[in-house]
Amino acid sequence: MKKFFTALLAVMLLGTVPVFASESDSDLVSVLPSTLPARMYLSDNPGTLSVSGEGRVKVMPDMALLNIGTTITGETTAVQQESVKVMEKVIAAIKDSGVAEADIKTTSYSLSPRYNYEVMRRDGTYDIVGYSMTHMLEVTVRDIDAVGTVLSNATEAGGT
């Protein structure tokens, strides 16, 4: 009987919902699914109550996370310097759109060779024909109405 009242108290703390149970220690206490999708089990261990449940909340977004970047390709590793110049313009455009510097972070920065796969060397390798530099940012836009402006300004500055 003590376990039943402990379970009932726990349900009341979670919210007022109808509960069905019996006095037996092994019975399942079930909350009506139409009221709250949760279940409680009375444990064989004294003083133990296990609860599992699910909750959902629907709200209007108040911020956005944008992934903005640049990819520059060229014949030499000078693409890295060109990428830095373009990204500086993109970051300036994002800041000019009202985004704080603390809300802009680099998530990826990579320089990769590009190969000519049409002709294989005798040693089984391919010729490098250029390089590709990718620099990606994650931008947190805290004014949801400014998302379009941030994206437009970033793409006009060279971002994708």
Write structural notes for this entry.
This protein is an alpha+beta fold and 160 residues long. The chain has 2 domains: 2-53, no CATH class; 64-156, Protein of unknown function (DUF541), domain 2 (Alpha-Beta Plaits), CATH 3.30.70.2970. Helices cover 26% and strands 38% of the residues. It contains 3 helices and 7 strands; from the N terminus they run H-E-E-E-E-E-H-E-E-H. The model is unreliable at 7-36 (pLDDT under 50).
Helix content: 25-40%
Strand content: 35-45%
CATH fold annotation of the largest domain: Alpha-Beta Plaits
Structural class: alpha+beta
Task: Say which CATH homologous superfamily of the largest domain is assigned.
Answer: Protein of unknown function (DUF541), domain 2
Describe the structure concisely for a colleague:
The protein is an alpha+beta fold. It has helices spanning 2-14, 79-96, 147-156, and strands spanning 19-20, 28-31, 38-42, 49-53, 64-74, 104-120, 126-141. It folds into two domains: 2-53, no CATH class; 64-156, Alpha-Beta Plaits (2-Layer Sandwich).
